[in-house]
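Lecture notes, unit on protein representations.

Consider one protein chain, 239 amino acids long.
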Amino acid sequence: MSNNIQEQKWQKLLKRAWLFRFIPFVDFVLVAGSMAMGSEEENSDFDVIVGCRQGRIFTARFCCWFVFGLFGWRRVNLGRSDLQNIEISNSGRSDLRRLNSDKFCFSHFVTPAAYRLSPPHNTYWQKLYQSIVPVFGEPQIIQKFYDANADWAGPVRNSPPDGSFGPRLRAGAVSNGMGWLLSGKLGNLMEKTFRKIQVKKIEKGLADVPKYNPRIIYSDNELEFHPHTKRIEDFLKNS
C-alpha cells in the first residue's frame, strides 16, 4: 500500500475515534489487525481492542455498537445466507470488503480480569500485540494491559503515524457522567439485560455463520470474536 493511502486511512481512523469519548465504561482503545501491523489495504476495516470497566463489558459493547452504528462507522456482520451469496464470485467478496472499509470492527473487549489475553501465545499473536497502537484512554491503564502480557508478547513498540506515542483522546464529561449514573443498581440491571440479549444473539450467530477454527470467547471478563483464523494458520506455516 502506498504511504499516501496509509496516511489517509490513519487520518480517517483518528478522526472517527473521538466517538469513544462519549461511550461509558471504556478505559482504552487499541488499534490492532492490519492497521497496526502496516499491512492495511484500501478496503481494510479498523480492528480494535476495547478495554472496559469490570462488570460493565456488555454495556460497553452495546454502547459501542449503538453509537458507531448511528454514524455508519461500525462493521456490518452478515449471516450464512448473505455470505453464501457473496462468496459466489470474487467481485462479491470485494463488495463485502468495500462495505466494511474504514469501519470499526469490535471483535475484542477485555476487562482488567482478562488483560492477560487467552492463549495460544504463538508468533502470530506476538507480532500482532507488539504492534498495537493506543488511540484512546489513560496511559497508566494502558500500561497495565501491556504489563499483563509482557511475559509472552514482549514490549509494545508501535505509535500513531505522526510519531507521537500514546493515546490523544480521553474520556469526556458525557461518558464520565453516564458512568457515574450507571454505576449502581440501575447499571447492574442494564448490564444483566444487555448480557442476556447479547449472549443469546452470540450463540445464535455461532450456529448461523460458517467458521474456520474459530477463536470465540464470551464471558463477563472477555469477549473475542474471530470466527475465521485461516490467515493465522497460513502465517504460522510460512513463518
